[in-house]
Design a protein that fits this description.
This protein is α+β, with helices and mostly antiparallel strands. About 40% of the residues lie in helices and about 20% in strands. It contains twelve helices and nine strands. Bound molecules: 3,4-dihydroxyphenylalanine. The site of 3,4-dihydroxyphenylalanine (DAH) has 13 residues, from β8 and β9. 3,4-dihydroxyphenylalanine binds next to β8 and β9.
């Protein structure tokens, strides 16, 4: 029996089963017809070999499925005369086991399909966030410069976040609208500078530490502002520390972080916790200082603030300002990440969208 006729047989048997289930038929005639279909199906070994895809599915459904047409023929078998009943029963059972064996053989002989030209699928590899990676880079650089890692709590008290940093009671920075207050005296730290205080409270000079971490301010969110961001604080207190130490440290930091060509510019400024104070600019490392959208055509990126530790701050920490001097700086990490990776919207750093992050 040819492959094509097996398919035809399946289709005919399906029609017979449909007619049976619709009822109102001449049972004997219908079963004779069924016998005429299944009896000629012989035990040819290669009956199913030429069938594929849809055809094979049809044949399987009709001859093998529990609710397939062949099995449905059992339903009214008891209503048939004995002789016909016996013939039909035998034919159905023979056909069933025939297809079972054929199909099994078919599956066993199925060649393993292995196409060596199909490109391999490489496993998905996770990666650290670009902010984490930049913080790790900062840690390496600061350690190379002789600074040790330290950290402080993100929930701070007013004393460490403001008072001991010489920020007076009615200073704008202490306004309740400028901070995430949790209670009257506790807030999410608005800067990493309180880590300076905590470290100086528990250590005597020489002190040479850095403290990276997350800080919080209720800024209106836009392409360059977010309510959380990252800073790294630097602090060096010892006898004879001068502004020259500060400048050299910042210059070396910028070169190790960004590259040999970067320039550092300090602009006079004011912070309550330093005197004198300065703003830190790096020459824009996206355009090399020519002016581009990242630096707002200025050629310089505002990176942070710095200065010589205010004697009042040292006094709060019981360090003698007559004997010791020091410098401190606070640098914005997110700005550096954005310039290093060419990102123009700070929100992208916090949305944790894998499709964005996996580019880096
Ligand atoms: N804490 C300042 C801010 O968040 C940055 C800063 C300025 C830190 C000067 C310092 C410093 O340590 O000396 O704006």
């Amino acid at each position: 029996m040819a492959a094509q006729s097996v398919v035809e047989a399946a289709e005919r048997l399906q029609r017979i089963a449909n007619a049976l289930s619709e009822g109102n038929v001449n049972l004997e005639a219908l079963y004779e017809e069924a016998l005429a279909v299944i009896e000629p199906i012989s035990e040819e070994e290669h009956l199913l070999e030429e069938l594929e895809g849809k055809q094979l599915e049809v044949v399987k459904r009709v001859f093998l499925f529990r609710k397939g047409a062949l099995n449905q023929l059992f339903r009214f078998i008891s209503l048939l005369p004995d002789d016909l009943k016996r013939r039909v029963g035998a034919a159905i059972n023979r056909t069933k086991s025939l297809f079972e064996t054929l199909l099994k053989k078919e599956e066993e002989e199925e060649p393993i399909k292995f196409d060596v030209t199909v490109p391999g699928r490489s496993p998905e590899v996770g990666r650290r966030h670009i902010i984490t990676r930049t913080i790790e880079e900062i840690c390496n650089v600061m350690r190379q410069l002789g600074f040790s890692y330290t950290e402080g709590p993100e929930v701070e008290d007013e004393y460490h976040n403001f008072v001991a940093l010489n920020i007076p009671e009615h200073h704008l920075a202490r306004d309740e609208k400028a901070n995430f207050y949790i209670t009257d005296t506790l807030l999410l730290r608005s800067q990493t500078s309180p880590v300076q205080i905590r470290y100086m409270e528990s250590h005597k000079p020489p002190i040479r530490v850095f403290a990276p971490g997350r800080v919080y301010r209720p800024d209106t969110v836009d392409a360059s502002h977010y309510y959380a961001f990252h800073q790294v604080e630097g602090l060096w207190v010892d006898e004879g520390i001068s502004f020259a130490h500060l400048k050299t440290t910042l210059l070396l930091f910028s070169r190790l972080m960004v590259g040999e060509d970067v320039k550092v510019r300090l602009r006079p400024s004011f912070f309550p916790f330093t005197e004198p104070s300065a703003e830190i600019d790096f020459s824009c490392f996206v355009c090399g200082g020519k002016g581009c959208p990242t630096c707002g055509k200025k050629g310089w990126l505002e990176i942070g603030g710095c200065g010589m530790v205010n004697p009042n701050v040292l006094r709060y920490c019981r360090i003698d300002p007559e004997r010791y001097t020091g410098f401190a700086f606070g640098i914005g990490i997110d700005r550096i990440v954005m310039a290093l990776y060419g990102i123009n919207d700070i929100r992208l750093l916090f949305q944790n969208d894998i499709r964005f992050l996996e580019q880096f």
